[in-house]
Amino acid sequence: MTEQRSVSSQGGGCRRPVKGERGSIAVEVAIITPAFIFLMLLVVFAGKVAEANGNVERAASEAARAASLRQHPSDAAFDAQDAAEQNLSQAGVSCIALDTAVDTSDFHAGGTVTVTVTCRASMADVTLLGVPGTRTFTARVVEVIDTYRGGEP
């Protein structure tokens, strides 16, 4: 004897798929997957931009601090460039072009030294988003030179 089950259309029973719905999950996944991948790449891009910007800010701050500790403006410019390069290298930021501009026009005890660091970094790993292959990050920091430091330039 074969047993037959009746399926009720009023709640709780099994529902048979309608012929027009077959394969609809595959279509939905095919539509949603690229959007999800795009969203994940956008998050990666935003994180990479924020991290690189923070690293350039820190490099400019370290460079300005290094420059403010020197006694002579030419030494200050050299130390600032060196500090910026080392800081970005240690942070893992590979700049395609790195420019460190040091303004020592007010370089005396109680004066200031201004350092501007500009780094052009590659965004090649997120080019699927359609963003340019490189992005330029710039940071400007003004450091006060200690009023009571020993010696004058």
* Average pLDDT figure: 83
Count of DSSP strands: 3
What does the radius of gyration come to? 30 Å
Distance between the termini: 108 Å
For the sheet with most strands, the description reads: 3 strands, antiparallel
Shape: rod-shaped
**With helices defined by DSSP (H or I, 4 residues minimum), what is the helix count?**
2
Which percent range fits the helix content?
A: 40-55%
**How do the strands of the widest beta sheet line up side by side?**
1-2-3
Written overview of the protein:
With 153 residues, the protein is an alpha+beta fold. It is built from two helices and three strands; from the N terminus they run H-H-E-E-E. It has a three-stranded antiparallel sheet, with helices on one face. Strand 1 (95-103) and strand 2 (112-122) form a beta hairpin. Helix 1 runs antiparallel to helix 2. The longest helix is centred in the first third of the chain and has 45 residues, at 24-68. The radius of gyration is 30 Å and the shape is rod-shaped. The relative contact order is 0.15. The mean pLDDT is 83.
